[in-house]
Hints:
de novo design (two linked rop proteins)
Amino acid sequence: xxxxxxxxxxxxxxxxxxxxxxxxxxxxxxxxxxxxxxxxxxxxxxxxxxxxxxxxxxxxxxxxxxxxxxxxxxxxxxxxxxxxxxxxxxxxxxxxxxxxxxxxxxxxxxxxxxxxxxxxx
Length: 121
């Protein structure tokens, strides 16, 4: 199996690309404050999934998947800040929030399945 075969990885990649495309249109101050942080947090999700996938032990992999989940939670804060500071529309907020909830659910299931596979070994 390749990392590109993981649905959770692809969903996270798509999400981080959307954040990048949104943020690149903002003015300098918004990009430099909220934007950079949000891009880093969104990139961190798929980067940590990728790093965990490449680790040798299941325990080591799981640690990176858990870090990815923490970065996903951070995205929720940046999403709310972007909306509250009028950097994104209500429709953008709702759509991105729905995506985050879907990724969160799938990532949690992925971690649980990974943990189960580790127990079964």
